[in-house]
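Chapter summary example.
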Amino acid sequence: MNNKAILVPTDFSEACRNAVKHGAALSKITGNPLVVFHVINNESSLFFKKAAGDENAEDRLKEVQDFVRTEYGIEIGTKIRKGSIFREIPRFAKEIDAAFMILGTRGKAGIQKLIGNQAMRIVEKSPVPTLVVQKRIFGSGYENIVFPVNIDIEFGQKVYWSVYFAKYFNSKVHIFVFREDNPELQARINNVVRQITEAFEQAEVPVSVKTAKNQAGYANQLLEFAASVRADLIPIMTDNDEFEPAFIFTSLDEKMVYNTQQIPVMCINPKNPN
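The structure predicted for these 274 residues follows.
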């Protein structure tokens, strides 16, 4: 794991610059190398043609390298490819066997450049877990992790990544449980919660459990709870029924990933290996 790179795709927007900061801080703490990746396509080519002077992608990546070296005292790798961001970013992540990827986005408001407004499409195609960050700075890292739990979901990878970050940041995990009005289904949820709690206890990660007040509006309650505990990270599984009734490409996926609290969200596709 320590030899695998942290991949940060960039379109040189402010959102992606913050993703680089998260990546650089994580790289320095974990020892994972950092690679910043830019894809030149029609849109980015047009952008650079309009840029002042002779500025180009190579120059911009050199600026990123210099910034990280000065601010974080580490060296990073860079790479440029031509093509579609939806093809080249997943392909490069697999090619370098990245540990995970960090995407920067400004959320749903405002005009974004190439990557920020296409975050969910990139997440869906990613062969590795994707940490989506907005404007919130890295700060002290990911000390409070809110862990959503619903019925019949795969939770092993979420536990794996929560423990991974907890070991570096002495994190506390706050399990937030879906409330089910059906007693039989609630019993099944309680069994899942018990297994997850035991997994964190075995990993010696502090853990607490909180259940939603109502069955309806779980996503909203989750984000309110996350704000109340000053959450720094929310791990979620994509392409399943974690958020009533489905996560991927619904209004709820946008609510979670583009949350107004700007809490970083780690998106894990079921096909992602640990």
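To summarize the output: Residues 50-54, 109-114, 240-250 have pLDDT under 50 and may be disordered.
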